[in-house]
From TrEMBL, chain A:
<dbReference type="GO" id="GO:0005886">
    <property type="term" value="C:plasma membrane"/>
</dbReference>
<dbReference type="GO" id="GO:0042918">
    <property type="term" value="P:alkanesulfonate transmembrane transport"/>
</dbReference>
<comment type="function">
    <text>Probably part of an ABC transporter complex. Probably responsible for the translocation of the substrate across the membrane.</text>
</comment>
<feature type="transmembrane region" description="Helical">
    <location>
        <begin position="146"/>
        <end position="165"/>
    </location>
</feature>
<keyword id="KW-0472">Membrane</keyword>
<keyword id="KW-0812">Transmembrane</keyword>
<feature type="transmembrane region" description="Helical">
    <location>
        <begin position="205"/>
        <end position="229"/>
    </location>
</feature>
<feature type="transmembrane region" description="Helical">
    <location>
        <begin position="119"/>
        <end position="140"/>
    </location>
</feature>
<dbReference type="Pfam" id="PF00528">
    <property type="entry name" value="BPD_transp_1"/>
</dbReference>
From TrEMBL, chain B:
<dbReference type="InterPro" id="IPR003593">
    <property type="entry name" value="AAA+_ATPase"/>
</dbReference>
<keyword id="KW-0472">Membrane</keyword>
<dbReference type="InterPro" id="IPR017871">
    <property type="entry name" value="ABC_transporter-like_CS"/>
</dbReference>
<dbReference type="InterPro" id="IPR050166">
    <property type="entry name" value="ABC_transporter_ATP-bind"/>
</dbReference>
<dbReference type="GO" id="GO:0016887">
    <property type="term" value="F:ATP hydrolysis activity"/>
</dbReference>
<dbReference type="GO" id="GO:0005524">
    <property type="term" value="F:ATP binding"/>
</dbReference>
<keyword id="KW-0547">Nucleotide-binding</keyword>
<dbReference type="Pfam" id="PF00005">
    <property type="entry name" value="ABC_tran"/>
</dbReference>
<feature type="domain" description="ABC transporter">
    <location>
        <begin position="4"/>
        <end position="218"/>
    </location>
</feature>
Amino acid sequence: MTIQLTERNTITAAPRKREKAKLTSLQLNVISWLAPLGFLLIWEAGSRLGLISPQVMPAPSAVAATGWRLIANGLLFQHLGASLARAAVGFAIGGSIGFALGVLVGFSRLAEAVLDRSIQMIRAIPFLAMLPLVIVWFGVDETGKIFMVSLAVMFPIYINTVLGIRQVDPKLLELARVTGLSWKATIRRIILPGAMPSILTGVRYALAVAWLALVIAETIATTRGIGFLAMDAREFLQTNVIVLTILIYAAIGVGADSLARLLERQLLRWHPNYAKES
Amino acid sequence: MSAVFVRGLRRQYGDRVVIENLDLRIGEGEFVALLGESGCGKTTLLRALAGLDPIDGGHIDAPGKPAVVFQEHRLLPWTPLWQNVALGMETPEGRKAAIAALREVGLAGREEDWPRNLSGGQAQRVALARALVREPKLLLLDEPFAALDALTRIKMHVLIRELVARHRPGVLLVTHDVDEAVAIADRILVMREGRIAASYQVEGSTGLRDTLLQELGVESDTRAA
């Protein structure tokens, strides 16, 4: 007896309807800009029609014109330079201290016992609450502002460095022992690269809080910097300058974040999660 | 000369004695498999031989530093393959040796590749290259093929036999796979309650497999031989 198989299940490769559905990433990119552009247009129109008072919110074109004027007379870059220098110096000092303490505590349980509780106590203080005290200590010159940025930056870097070092796979440390790796080589080849993803997370977070600290520190008795520009404008009710400074802070925040991403992509090329992103 | 000579070894965790008065000798180029149920002390013995754990009695005499291949490949993901193999000796000579070792395990030309691009079997071969490039007198294998699929495991068995025949280290393979032990070892030890309970020379005897299963407490062999 034979069994006739009449029904046949055939699967053929269907030509994909590509051109119909898929938008290119360029098109999607363009679309993603439509909403903010539309918002700007409505804002501009509202201002021109007198629906929005220039005292409350100047037109985008007015803000742009102010920006252009400050670029042309060099004031913008002078103040921007002062702000960036403060941020950079503060970040370097706070970052170095945080990293050094993090390495120390990460490696040594004794150092942890000695240092960690005190560091955590200081961390519990919102750094902005320190501001009056900082003014008393350092007056209103550069030192106080740099101190504020350093303080803000120190903790995220410290915590993530400790965490990164502690999370290094103990199996790899065992490997270091059986291959007879020296103490130095173990740190350089295994512990630091293993801790790097966590350290960079700390850097990224630190960049964000550094900026926050700077904005606050700069609004107090300054003669230079973006914060001064904003405070000075407030005195004279120059809303367009105030809006401009807010936009500059935003732009620099975005810039700092891209810098951190770039760093991650460069240093974590081996990491499957970051390799995909690029 | 022997690759390792162990006399009266004792190892305990607190009051619990894991290895008691254990003697072991592995000759140069000899391939010894160590079988035993979980918790019998076989991994403890390997870790003691590797110098990863201290010993509580007796002595271990081994020329030079033993090399270890673990169950997991333990490659550094942030480092290209040749640097993984040459770990701790990343000189131009070390690089040459690493490239040669990678060629030996069938990964010629992959020295600049990254661990994330390897299959499980390939990663374990790099781990083997990392062990062999150090020219150890004693090679310790801690269930290195346990996580591989059956086909890859058989290929690895062939490869490891070739490599051992060429480099002639003494080998101690810790495994719980009787067939693996019979397939690649010269001598099989059965460990029970911290001692070497039995020792068999492998000479292609078909009855050995059943005997070993009996030693390990598997009553009857239901699988067809």
